[in-house]
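To close the chapter, one final illustration. This time we ask the reader to focus less on the individual chains and more on the assembly as a whole: which components sit near each other, and how the overall shape emerges from the parts.
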Amino acid sequence: GIQVEQSPPDLILQEGANSTLRCNFSDSVNNLQWFHQNPWGQLINLFYIPSGTKQNGRLSATTVATERYSLLYISSSQTTDSGVYFCAVDGSSNTGKLIFGQGTTLQVKP
Amino acid sequence: DTAVSQTPKYLVTQMGNDKSIKCEQNLGHDTMYWYKQDSKKFLKIMFSYNNKELIINETVPNRFSPKSPDKAHLNLHINSLELGDSAVYFCASSWLPAMNTEAFFGQGTRLTVV
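The assembled structure is written out below.
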């Protein structure tokens, strides 16, 4: 089945710093989503981005489907950005089944 | 309005008991899912229903039985609970592929078996 790898596994930033999270996947995908799991455990949708580039405030994402990777950019990080960031993909299963990466744990220090 | 809601949020129970988790979505989606997040935060799909029909059944013990009374509801019943069932269970919903398949998740149910 499709493999999803995220890097780095852990990241510590000072408030105000920028960061880039990466998601590599092993096969073509119909769907790619980025989620933020906050310290209370909620999975928050960040981007639905099977291809192209999107921006939402301080966050932006780019997926290069032909090269099988996606990047999540966080600019001017805030302590509220702390948590785990997941990339999830739906391969060619036509079932909507999401395969999750192992996540990047981000800690933003004040 | 909560798009995907699960109850209860926390569930503590003894080994051997039977418990249920309920899920409802008001997004009009035709497909609902159950995912399990283990202690290392790894998320994996368990089941999926499309218009009340089971379409995904991963390798899950048959003590776990999903039930979908209608396309807006997908409940998870667990028999004879074991210590290893302790995890966070997430319900989700989306449209099936061929449309925008963005999935939305409930707030999770933290199950602790003692």
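Chain A touches chain B through 22 residues (CB under 8 Å). Chain A is about 0% helix and 55% strand. With these observations in hand, you are ready for the problems at the end of the chapter.
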